Amino acid sequence: MKTFLVVAGVxxxxxxxxxxxxxxxxxxxxxxxxxxxGIAFQNVEYFASTxxxxxxxxxxxxxxxxxxxxxxxxxxxxxxxxxxxxxKEGYVALAVDMYNGTSTTDxxxxxxxxxxxxxxxxxxxxxxxxxxxxxxxxxxxxxxxxASVGWCFGGGWSYQMAINELGTNASVMYYGxxxxxxxxxxxxxxxxxxxxxxxxxxxxxxxxxxQAALETTNGMxxxxxxxxxxxxxxxxxxxxxxxxxEEEAELAWERTKDFLEKIFSSN
Length: 267
Prior knowledge:
Layout: E1 2-7, E2 10-15, E3 39-47, E4 50-57, E5 63-69, H1 77-88, E6 92-95, H2 107-118, H3 121-137, E7 141-151, H4 153-163, E8 170-174, E9 190-196, H5 204-215, E10 222-226, H6 246-266
Parallel strand pairs: 5-6, 5-7, 7-8, 8-9, 9-10
Antiparallel strand pairs: 1-2, 3-4, 4-6
């Protein structure tokens, strides 16, 4: 298999050979203590020895599948709670772990972890491709209805899933890195982007350039710029994130739900 990674407008062809072991049966539910939530959740080994967090509706059925990609802090309780929230909306949500079991609240350590992923691009793609294969193998997942959702570090990887055609129909990116000069002509995935007007790392003008580029391509693409908020505005992180804006986060959540429903209903 070949994966095409676009970095600063240059296409790098990476040959990836790997073997993925998957469970072809529906996962055994670990019941949520709050019966009224209507969801179940469990830790699952979806790639080599890497464990992710899977949340899904208890009611037997077939649902769209989501791959959730964490911020540079790692797979923490904040992302798991979002997986639960998606499950309540009728999705099977797999929160992947790009750090193989490590998470942190220290920005220096987070930077080190994110750099380590960038230094092993083939391994990162194997991880995400394995997540796609895992979801497709589940009896309660519609394998023709898959999307990725990522935040910050994960937003950038959600974007990479789109432009590298990793098998998803849509990519939702919350303040993730992108390149407006990438070639979107052959991209099949639809993109939804959420960005803060006051983000110090992603300039508004660049976001507008990205939006304009997407408007010239096929697909249902939506880019939103949220006023008076910066990077990380949609993640509460247990009340520790000073950049969090409940109002804008909820607006982005509603837009994400509407976007995914529109994409999946059109398939």
